């Protein structure tokens, strides 16, 4: 994908307006005119990989529109290519759709309809609309012609119905090796649309299928299976991405020629399986794909990252998969807000990664309780407090929302502060701690640094200072003006934690170009994952997995879905507080 189109940053108030998108407009008209009593959509992923952020647009469209207009949406696994498909993906897809907050009316598989597709193919043969072709794949390609040249008819195009039926039945019986023959639609070898030049409907493939085992040595092609699945399920609006626009005439051809709505005999196999159907004539409508820079979003490329060990599996928090960004701390609401703001259109565009990150910040700012964590710890001893000094301070959990309540934060003589909040030689404009200087400890009072303790190598190992007791909360001097405020945790009470500092997986906006013989593999960000050991306050350590927090002054973090334990906390950085990439990374 080349981003030769502008990046798109819609204003926040565009959401309501985008809800008037052209697909919703069509749905409204179809309901108002009585063309459909209710709408029915489907989300049809191929289980050949994990879902990614791009799929969120399709899910939000298919499930969201059905929900909005009181319709129904099926989850249909498009499992017509057994060689690439895996039950692991099927499970992850269902998990992801549920996580986004959607419920399917029915879970279907294209393979549920293999019997129907087969009967429909025999019908096409009898109608003279399909034939068995003995050309090899290479020959088919040579006969197909090009954009400027018409194709040539296959020498097998005029086979009689009986011969075609006999050969097709023998294909089905497994008599021929892979690739020996195909069943092709008989449409128009001179069509300007190459998809209509007698496209294949079935190919021979002796491969075991995850649902149907070894029942079928032949498998239907995508266009044929997809259009008929829609028609069988009574889909009213078949929503898909723009690359299928040129396939729409074939989609319509398959539905019209098979016409399952008027041929109940074709659907008989479903009754036996207890699969309800209400055949219809679906309408395909295309919208543009969601593309984001600084990432790759094709399952094939994501699979390569996984297979080559360049990431830690499909669910690596740096991956744009839904499993990955979920583990990273993205919320379903942030994703849905993101796609709903962008809306639906027929124009391809490339969205800046920062738009996604800003949406997450916005969502987490509202929903994430605040906590304190120190990621690069430096000891700070308050020498005017007793060794056993211990108190419980009360902190509000959210600065803007009282409903988050309060929590107790332990305070004691020895603290951890962040190394970067102290400078021996401060740069210009420095507001934090310096030798002899003062700073406010968030919620605890003003401290002065009296002494910098170093080791033999000259490295700072500890600061010693005093707490101004008159500046404690509730004391007359509590409001004394001071320039900087820093966060801290009590060394005695804090819990040591592993903190994974994730960042963008690629260093360039368009890792997908093949310029200079480089590929996306060459643009992996070596700093996209750093792990540090820090300290978190007790009320962060006790979090449940997947609980998100703002670590004050540090960023948004989430308790790792799989590895976090209260006695051994693991937090993942979801996003920094501010965009650090804006000025070019
Ligand atoms: P990929 O190119 O990532 O492998 P795909 O199109 O092969 O994706 P499918 O599993 O076939 O993936 O997709 C299921 C549905 O999701 C399809 O309707 C497809 O149009 C839609 N979809 C896939 N990628 C995107 C995207 N980036 N933006 C919007 N919709 C998408
Ligand atoms: Mg696909």
Automatic annotation (TrEMBL):
**Domain of life, source organism:** Bacteria
EC class: ligase
Q: Per the database record, which ranges form the Glutamyl/glutaminyl-tRNA synthetase class Ib anti-codon binding domain? A: 368-468
Per its record, the protein catalyses:
tRNA(Gln) + L-glutamine + ATP = L-glutaminyl-tRNA(Gln) + AMP + diphosphate
Q: Does the keyword Cytoplasm apply?
A: yes
* MF-aspect GO terms: ligase activity
Q: Where is this motif: 'KMSKS' region?
A: 296-300
| Subunit and interaction comment | Monomer.
EC number, UniProt record: 6.1.1.18
Q: Which HAMAP family match?
A: Gln_tRNA_synth
Q: Where in the cell is it found?
A: Cytoplasm
UniProt motif 'HIGH' region: location = 45-55
Where the record annotates domain tRNA synthetases class I (E and Q) anti-codon binding, the positions are 485-560
UniProt: ATP binding residues: 46-48, 241, 289-290, 297-299
SUPFAM superfamilies reported in the protein's UniProt record: Nucleotidylyl transferase, Ribosomal protein L25-like
Name of this chain's protein? Glutamine--tRNA ligase
| Residues involved in L-glutamine binding | 78, 222
